[in-house]
Every structure is written in structure tokens, then in C-alpha cells.
């Protein structure tokens, strides 16, 4: 899944990506005059959880739990979320059919400084349950229309311990977690349903949903408003091992492959805050080439940008504001279906002057490998997505969603697919 023409992988060395990230970090931004930088330990932040992003003020359909929810929020956080997608392939694709996808997520986080007098320590865990759907099979696409589509099952997706060293502006995280919570994410793309709006599909061995993996991560504030994070993940997924169902066994033992990744990121404050990140990844395993040969290691790069563009119109007090995101990614076309990827989107927050509503439009394009053995008859796949997220209660959002996929799966014999549906989002 990848974009841009030309043969071969756009070979970018790790040092080049880091230099590009530094250049971006030092370049003038869209932001207004920058204010003072946030505290050092706040710079190296992970992607917001689902509740933080979508339900910042939600109490939940189950109420206050007789005061326990407020008590939990002081030192413990428990987020219970249920997503239900109902989508139909209206035209084109492989099969015009209705599909339903369901996903239940329980996320837990404990501040050990409050609970056990362990300064700077946090314990996190996540468990989820999903049903099996065949929406993408009906569409025939490569980028995956719904980001909750997976095989049926339940797993302990995350169990990790993080230690922050405030004086050094650093943190160490060890355990099982989703790589996309730390790397290659765009915060303003979280409300989109299409999977490629979440991370570049060029990272084809990414240990993310539904297969997070055991890892060790180090994050360091390297300069004012600039952070570097690096991690080594269990790379057994590339061998067909479902790491989402595993513990640290394949990280510490056979197979001994690793997924290595690093990202240099800069954040800026002011009237129009934003974030830019440049990343490089490498997998230490051995891969089949499309020409029938074998190759040691796979590698790629990515760039991500989140930018708030400001209020919509002249009256900022109306609450409507526009945010945007941009994604770029590349991988070796000898190994990866996706050679290059470009994704971008706009979201209007407080749409139609309704505080918690949002209107979004985005596009994501992958250019497929041109290798003869890759088997693609079309150069790339382009998907458009339009949604309106409407809050019906403090604990419930309904999100009508329309997607149009051009050249699904790189198969020139398939008609372009129109997919229409709705996502129900409950905060329990």
C-alpha cells in the first residue's frame, strides 16, 4: 500500500530522516508567535487515548458509580468504550453487502506516585474484545475501510510499566503495548474510520492493532520542545506469530527478530499549536522478495504533521475551529505491497456551533509496488472519507461516514467502491 511513481524504494538513511526532522523542527511553522515551552516531561507524550480524544468530559452511560468514578480519576483511570460499525458497500468493490463490526475496549492506568509513593511511575493495561467482520473483503481494498476490523477474539493488548525521570527529561517504558500509541500517529486523524488515517500502511510490520507486542522504549527531551523516542519491539509478527496473543516469550526467545523504530518530534504552542515528527524503522528479520529471492531486514520512513489552523470565520467565540494532519511514508517495493503513502485531512471542531460535534474530510493514497511478482494491475489505491460526528448524550456519539475507494486493492478489474455507514460510539 503506497504512493508516488518511479521504480525502487525511495532509500532514505536514518541520518537523513533525523536531519529532515531537525530541519522541520527548526523551520518556521504555521503557528502564531510561540509561547513558553511546556514542562519537559510533558513534551514526550503518547497519543491520546480514545476517551481523551473523543470524550474529554464524558461521565459514561453507567453514571458516576456512586462516587467511585471521581475517586478513580484522581489516581486511577478506567475507560470502557464500545464501538459498533454498520457499513454497506453500496456500489463497486467485490460484493455489495452489509457488514457489522463490534469492538469493546477496557483501558486502565494507575499513577503509582499516588498509590504507592513511587515517583514518576505509571502502570497501564488494556483488554479488548472484537467480532470478526469481512467489510474490507467486500470492498476489496488494501487500506482497510474500518480501523476496528479484525478476526474474532479477545486479548490482553497492553500491560506496561513506565518510569519518568523528570530531572533528565526522560522516560523508560517496558512491557506490551501498541506501537501506534507512541509512533507514526496523527492526533487529528483519530476520528476517521479508515485505518490508513491512523498510520502509514507502508509500515507493513507495525506491531499495532490487533497485534501489539512486547517492547522497550526510551524517550528523551533533546532540545526545547523537541523529543526523541526509540524502541525495540518483538518482531515475531513478520514470521506469522500473533504477538497480540503472546507475552514476552518471543521477544526474549525464538524467533529473535526485532522491529526497531525511532521518531524525532517537535511540538509548538501558541494560538495554533501543532506537532511534527520524522521516523525511521527497520525489521531485523528475513523477508521474501517479490522476485523470489530473500532479503535480510526491511526498512522504511515516515513523516507526520498535526496543525491547528485556527477558528472558522472571524468570530472565534463561536467555537468552530479547523485542525489538520498530513502523513507521508515509504518502504522498499521489493518487499512491501505499499511503496509510498500520502494521507491528509481536515476536521472542523464544534461543527455547526455544537460544542462536541465534528465534521471531517480526508484522503489517503498508496502507490503499490511495481515489481512483477507483486501482482497489482493498478498503480495505486485512493480513498476519500467524509464524516460528521454528532453527540447525542455525554456518553454517546453517532458518526455517519462515507468512503469512496478508487482502484480497490490495486485491482483494475474492480469498479470503484462506494461505502456508506455509521459508527456508534459509547463511553460506558
Domains, number? 1
The amount of helix comes to 10-25%
Number of helices: 7
And the CATH topology?
Porin
Enumerate the strands of the largest sheet in spatial order, edge to edge or round the barrel.
1-2-3-4-5-6-7-8-9-10-11-12-13-14-15-16
Question: What is the radius of gyration?
Answer: 21 Å
Arithmetic mean pLDDT: 85
Basic shape: globular
Q: Architecture in CATH?
A: Beta Barrel
Let me know the largest β-sheet.
16 strands, antiparallel, barrel
**H/E order of the elements?**
HHHHEEHEHEEEEHEEEEEEEEE
Strand content: over 45%
Output the CATH homologous superfamily: Carbohydrate-selective porin OprB
Which structural class is indicated by helix and strand composition? mainly beta
CATH class group:
Mainly Beta
How many β strands by DSSP?
16
Q: Ends: how far apart?
A: 35 Å
Describe this structure in words.
It is built from seven helices and 16 strands. The protein has a 16-stranded antiparallel barrel with strand order 1-2-3-4-5-6-7-8-9-10-11-12-13-14-15-16. The protein has 428 residues and is mainly β. It has one domain (14-427): Carbohydrate-selective porin OprB (Porin, Beta Barrel).
